[in-house]
Specification:
- About 50% of the residues lie in helices and about 5% in strands.
- The chain has about 350 residues and is mainly alpha-helical.
- The protein has two domains: about 10-205 and about 315-350, Rossmann fold (3-Layer(aba) Sandwich); about 225-315, Tyrosyl-Transfer RNA Synthetase, CATH 1.10.240.
- Helix 9 (about 170-190) links the parallel strand 4 (about 165) and strand 5 (about 195-200).
- Helix 5 (about 110-115) runs parallel beside helix 14 (about 320-350).
- The longest helix has 30 residues, at about 320-350.
- It binds tryptophanyl-5'AMP.
């Protein structure tokens, strides 16, 4: 039996029955629960999300279906998924003020992915930078799930009619293709989806590796001194930042091309302290050596991360609580997904019983 009820469009009444706050725009975004949260994910993503809780209708999910597009260990995925919920909450995503749910627990993501895949060309998917980069690493055996990755991402977003999608810069191309395919669906089957806007923070949108500031900070980096995790103890954070690669010029200003190491640290400082880049640069303009600057960056990062780590350690082992958060999120997300899927199924010509 189809799980989707026979409802063909959103009305104000329907929205109120779904706890959608009328007048508030819908924010949706997610993260792969692939392990420990690092400074890139914190500053490029969650830090912005938690500022939106009061002004938007916020849906935050864990993209566990995306996480299996690369080699992984099932038991670790299960553990990391609950860990990721704990990290979300520790970073300020208060489950009383937003919905937190798991992609694989809501029926609709993969169903909508299939339909959107039927109007997305293989050429478009093969041209996606992330597919090209990741498939280079895996070679011939690259799985088709990796090619389909952006279509699942489109489905995640369009299933909830998200107005705004906060992301780091690396996900921008995925948003562009989402808008493109949403528009194509609307043109083909009549107006259905809102065209989502990306939200990319002015600072923190691309945090780079501490040892190779031309590459993105990433948990898959073999050299772990390049990545600061929110679970790192304070002395480890300080050591990693003090050891960050810079240059020999001893002057502090932002120049991504010629001073990528210093520019990355400035970016980290600005995003961590919630200051503009201009103000951050002005603060260090008189220094003639890098050590005090790095100390200031380390102090700021530790001040930001310590309370998050403490909260994380407090709730990380409370599986019952974390599952209850996911259950509440799932219930609400499923209601919304059902409505959208009923609408989409009708538009594409599937029979609803
Ligand atoms: P993921 O799990 O790779 O990253 C989660 C978020 O963190 C941002 N991010 C960074 N920002 C700045 N500097 C970095 N070094 C850095 N590393 C990661 C990412 O841009 C992202 O916003 N495909 C997505 C998950 C996803 C999703 C979606 C997001 C699936 N469906 C729908 C939004 C909407 C991903 O793998 O993110």
């Amino acid at each position: 039996m189809l799980p989707f009820p026979k409802i063909s469009f959103w009305t104000t009444k329907e929205k109120s029955s779904l706890n959608v706050e009328i007048g508030k725009k819908v924010i949706l975004t997610g993260m792969q629960p692939t392990g420990k949260l690092h400074l890139g994910g914190l500053l490029g993503a969650i830090n912005n999300w938690q500022k939106m809780l009061d002004d938007y209708d916020c849906l935050f999910f864990l993209a566990d279906q995306h996480a299996i597009t690369m080699p992984y260990i099932p038991a670790e995925l299960r553990k990391n998924t609950l860990d990721c919920v704990a990290q979300y909450i520790a970073c300020g995503l208060d489950p009383e003020r937003c919905k937190i749910f798991l992609q694989s627990q809501v029926i609709g993501h993969t169903e909508l992915m299939w339909i959107l895949g039927c109007i997305t060309s293989v050429g478009q998917l093969e041209r996606m930078t992330q597919f090209k980069d990741k498939s280079k690493k895996v070679g011939e055996s690259v799985c088709s799930g990796l090619l389909y990755y952006p279509v699942l991402m489109m489905a995640d977003i369009l299933l909830y009619n998200a107005d705004l999608v906060p992301i780091g810069e690396d996900q921008k191309q995925h948003l562009e293709i989402t808008r493109n395919i949403a528009q194509k669906f609307n043109n083909t089957y009549s107006e259905t989806f809102v065209l989502p806007e990306p939200y990319i923070g002015k600072t923190g949108a691309r945090i780079m590796s501490l040892q190779d500031p031309t590459a993105k900070m990433s948990k898959s980096d073999k050299n772990q001194s390049t990545v600061v995790y929110i679970a790192d103890p304070d002395p480890v954070i300080r050591k990693k930042i003090m050891g960050a690669v810079t240059d020999s010029d001893n002057r502090i200003y932002f120049d991504q091309e010629n001073k990528p190491g210093i520019s990355n640290l400035l970016n980290i400082y600005a995003a961590t302290t919630d200051q503009s880049m201009e103000k951050s640069v002005a603060q260090f303009a008189d220094l003639t050596s890098y050590a005090p600057f790095k100390q200031a960056v380390a102090d700021a990062v530790i001040a930001k991360i310590s309370p998050i780590r403490n909260k994380y350690l407090e709730i990380a082992n409370d599986g019952k609580y974390l599952l209850s958060v996911l259950n509440a999120g799932k219930e609400e997300a499923q209601k919304r997904a059902n409505k959208m899927m009923a609408k989409v199924y009708r538009k594409v010509g599937f029979l609803l019983d």
